[in-house]
Write a structure and sequence with these properties.
The radius of gyration is 32 Å and the shape is elongated. It has a domain of 64 residues. The chain is built from six helices and no strands. It is mainly α and 154 residues long.
Amino acid sequence: MNKKSRFGASVELNYAAMTISMCVRIVERIPTIKNLIKRLNQDFLFKLECGFLVSDKTPSEAAYSRLLTKLSESNVLEKAQNSLVYHSITEGFISDDTVAIDATHFEACDKAPLKDEQPKAEPKKRGRKSKIDRESWLVAIPTLIHIITFMNRL
């Protein structure tokens, strides 16, 4: 199967393995898609456990972005969840009188957290001190000398 254009998604991407790797990324606490791709490239067993074949190329960040866009626009995941709950009820794993679904919110990992902006301290003035600062410093010197001599006597 050949592509009609050089633009757009690759024909040979393993979308099932990409979806599994996105779920594994959350479970393994891999913060970004870039780090996921790096792990897929470095760890061959991890790549196989995610469902990729030996002959599969590692998808790019753009491929993952397109996959996430398609998943968010469709209701495929909702259908899969409903199917899973239905099969679990028919097999007897879940009683149909009470069904609770945990919709735990996963914190977004692709963006850095906002930093609290701290006001910048005024830089120290360089050079010669003003007359007021110099006079207050000169007044404090005899007091310090008196304290030091008193401490030495003890």
